Amino acid sequence: MGRRVWIAVAVLLLAGPALAQEQVGDLDWRPKVASPAYVTDGPVVLVDQGHGSEQTIEGRYAAFAALMRADGYRIEASRGRLDAPGALDGVVVLVIANPARPADGSRASAFDDDEIEAIRRWVEQGGALLLAADHAPHGSAAEALAAKFGVSMGTGYAFQSVGGDLTANLLFPRPELADHPIIEGRDQSERLTVVKSFTGQSLSGPADATVLLAMSADAREAPDFEALQTIRTRLRAGQDPAVVLAELSRPALPAQGLALRLGAGRAVVLGEAGMLTAQIVRFPDQADSEPVRMGLNTAGHDDQQFVLNLMHWLSRLLP
């Protein structure tokens, strides 16, 4: 089994050998949007597929693409450099989700300085960016771009202790959600009460950024998956949590979601990408078992409305 798939289901399988073989977009999930934002000629949303991301609109981000279309947006994919002539012409929202480090290992960032500067300049002149980067190694691939907007990334695995165990599936109830149009929506029916993320990293932003999703005071971040595994094993063995956490993790940064303005533009930075889409993990060795679902195809949260609201804010439907 590939390491990336093992990491993707870490939240479910932290304690032992994984059997999952395939993580894919849930192509059977169908969004239901009661009041689409755009009836005709909706804004263009461009999803970056030119920097090694597996979150493509044909695959793992198919559900995100379906939700955008259901809300009236026109969604397109970019497969080249974002600083190429005309690459961002006509684009209202640029979406970058889980860029990957270059295969040759020559640099950690998925973007070179020229592209980063071009993206920042485009936002500053009125564009809108949605940047979502998961747990390691995606944080390190995106952190140079995030830093251009004053955002720091934890680049590890954010988690919370739960009794003698831990979870990387984080819930953000209403007290941990911001006083912001993205949380309030266009009316009471769009107001968020709880948001859920599915294994990511933590963030911090500039002083004028809004913390959309506030990490709890006891949230921690492990530097890598092996450390996360070890923490859980030692906690389950009854070792002193204070000692284990101090040795193998650090306090999480204060946010997992930020909204900010730059010049005439806007940006949302998330420390978790799965909450924007719907994915399944299949277990071929357990043919009779149901696939594990992650994201918009799960219950108990307002993530679909969260996605719609943040896109409404980025496309200027919300103030």
Short account of what is shown:
The chain is built from eight helices and 18 strands. With 319 residues, the chain is α+β, with helices and mostly antiparallel strands.
Which CATH architecture?
Answer: 3-Layer(aba) Sandwich
H/E element order = HEEHEEHEHEEEEHEEEEHHEEEEEH
CATH class placement = Alpha Beta
What percent of the residues sit in helical stretches (DSSP H or I)?
A: 10-25%
- Number of H- or I-type helical stretches: 8
Strands, total number:
18
CATH topology: Rossmann fold
Low-pLDDT ranges: 1-20
Q: Could you say how many structural domains there are in total?
A: 1
Which structural category do the helix and sheet elements fall into?
alpha+beta
